[in-house]
Write a structure and sequence with these properties.
Structural class: alpha/beta
Number of helices: 16
Number of domains: 2
Shape: globular
Radius of gyration: 24 Å
CATH topology of the largest domain: Rossmann fold
Number of strands: 27
Helix content: 25-40%
CATH class of the largest domain: Alpha Beta
Largest sheet: 9 strands, mixed
CATH architecture of the largest domain: 3-Layer(aba) Sandwich
């Protein structure tokens, strides 16, 4: 069985049941109303605020898009990229691509024009599907994208060089596409990055996607009656792979476009969500809003909410203890994963192990784990080494990069790059990252990339980017900058210069100091982390 078979099954078994709901709180005239206030004013959601489709609609739309792709010459093994914000069209397009036997290539909506170009060329993309938000970025590089045969636009303002998705879908065939697929066939290319920050293309098979369905459903026991609230971006393996557990049983999903605490609580309440996956900053924001009095839990229907789980970055135990104070009946789980292992689930805490908060847990369903030394030998319990995982969700390879593949795949085991240890009970604890990746609000930031950009400033002699602990985001990027002699440079000058980077990559703190280097010329980042990862530096730090 492949994952498109699950969609077809759901469409036959539950054709009229709702599969997906899209919520756009910014379009609601009173987006922050609790359900009690909402009913009092008898507000009726308009089409821009709330859209939904059934399982039958989902299958029909996927078939239509698959047939469009076939008409445009797409065949098995070709690559079709998606560059969309979360929306009701996203998943039917994803499944339509898979139905043709082509590979789906989701792209990060934060990518700059140059990053889009790089990833499209790396993945051999033939068709690019994009939304209104990306018109300027695509237009800037359109003439350079020689391998892309067609651009398909989803939205209101279709540029002249693109085909309108809405117009194309009006007359598209709804017939089922009969392309034979097996679990070993290539299915998707997701993007990660190496130590330099340049994205790598991660190739996954249909077996990987199916493994995510089975693992997620085993961990969180989704049923047809559950409703999954999906907030993170669908281009990321995390959000989608958690939803796969609901897909397996025909459960409903809510796509919420926004992360304000009031919007999350309203969505849980109005849509009777039972499962919510949060990032640490969002959980932190909800708790802060409760404690400020901005959110009164009595105003929301929350008795049905049974599971809150968190992933994408280390989870402070204090946050979960605080969460349980306000939501004592919630089941809680932590999920660990990486795109090379089809996202979350290769390690998970388990709802029954809340006494082990702080650990990422044990090997997930149908997964194996071990902690190894530099020669891939298993280390003893309580000894720090590199976490390695093995399972059906491990990538096939880094696409067109055999050298990078050989560095992380060893006899079926994936070296994660995370340093960890296993306690006497077999629970795994992360202690550091082997590479200098900074995880801020669930997004990976790569210091070398940021350093290389800042070094272009005329006044900068040297720079080191490190992660500083942050209560809300887990970590933030801090740039320690050494200024050339004779130059005058302010923190605002650096902050303004960094506007040339994608917003999420800009350092949150700027510090002027000397950069220590060892005798071989390497920056001594451990010294900088020790020096600045303490409180009481308000006078030396500034938010950019």
């Amino acid at each position: 069985m492949v994952i498109t078979d699950i969609l077809t099954h759901n469409a036959k078994q539950f054709p009229q049941d709702i599969s997906l709901v899209e919520l756009n709180p910014q379009f609601h005239e009173n987006p922050d109303l609790s359900w009690k206030e909402y009913e009092l004013v008898e507000a009726i959601p308009n089409e821009k605020y709330r859209r939904e489709i059934s399982w039958g609609d989902f299958e029909k739309l996927s078939n239509q898009f698959a047939n469009i792709l076939l008409e445009y010459g797409i065949s098995k093994g070709d690559k079709v990229a998606i560059l969309l914000m979360n929306c009701l069209e996203w998943l039917p397009i994803y499944f339509g691509i898979l139905k043709t036997g082509a590979l789906v290539v989701p792209m990060n909506f934060r990518y700059s024009s140059e990053e889009i170009k790089y990833c499209a060329e790396l993945a051999d993309v033939k068709i690019l599907v994009f939304g209104d938000e990306f018109i300027d970025r695509i237009s800037a590089i359109k003439s350079q994208l020689k391998n892309i045969n067609y651009f398909i636009h989803v939205g209101d303002e279709c540029p002249v060089y693109a085909q309108s998705y809405e117009f194309m879908m009006e007359g598209a065939s709804e017939s089922e596409v009969k392309e034979p697929l097996s679990e070993d066939d290539d299915a998707a290319i997701y993007f990660s990055s190496g130590t330099t920050g340049f994205p790598k293309a991660i190739l996954h098979s249909h077996k990987s996607l199916m493994s995510a369905c089975l693992t997620e459903n085993n961990h969180h026991a989704q049923t047809k009656e559950d409703t999954f609230l999906c907030i993170p971006p669908l281009y990321h393996t995390g959000a989608k792979m958690h939803w796969f557990g609901s897909l397996l049983v025909g459960g409903k999903a809510i796509l919420l476009r926004g992360t304000k605490p009031e919007w999350i609580m309203k969505a849980v309440s109005d849509e009777y969500a039972t499962i919510v996956w949060l990032l640490v900053p969002w959980a932190q924001d909800i708790l802060d809003a409760i404690e400020r009095g901005d959110i009164d839990l009595k105003n929301y229907r929350l008795n049905q909410w049974r599971l809150m789980h968190i992933g994408a970055q280390p989870v402070p135990p204090s946050l979960i203890n605080r969460w349980r104070k306000y939501f004592p009946s919630h089941q809680y789980d932590t999920n660990y994963g990486l795109s090379e292992a089809i996202g979350p689930g290769c390690v998970h805490l388990g709802v029954e192990n809340i006494h082990k908060i702080g650990s990422i847990g044990k090997a997930g369903y149908h997964w194996e784990t071990k902690i190894v030394d530099d020669k891939c030998r298993t280390v003893a319990q309580n000894e720090i080494g590199e976490l390695a995982v093995k399972g059906d969700g491990v990538m096939k390879c880094y696409y067109k990069d055999p050298k990078a593949t050989s560095e992380v795949l060893k006899d079926g085991w994936l070296l994660t790059g995370d340093m960890a240890y296993e306690d006497n009970d077999g629970f795994i604890y992360l202690v550091d990252r082997k590479k200098d990746v900074i995880i801020s609000g669930g997004e990976n930031l790569y210091p070398v990339e940021i350093e290389n950009f800042i070094r272009k400033h005329d006044a900068v002699k040297d720079v080191a980017v490190i992660g500083l602990a942050d209560k809300r985001l887990g970590e933030i990027a801090a740039a320690i900058i050494e200024i050339k002699q004779g130059y005058n440079c302010t923190q605002k000058d650096i902050a303004d210069f960094c506007m040339g980077m994608a917003r999420y990559k800009r350092p949150r703190k700027i510090i002027f100091d000397d950069i220590p280097r060892n005798p071989t010329g390497k920056i001594e980042k451990p010294k900088l982390r020790e020096k600045y990862n303490v409180e009481g530096l308000v006078g030396k730090l500034t938010h950019s």
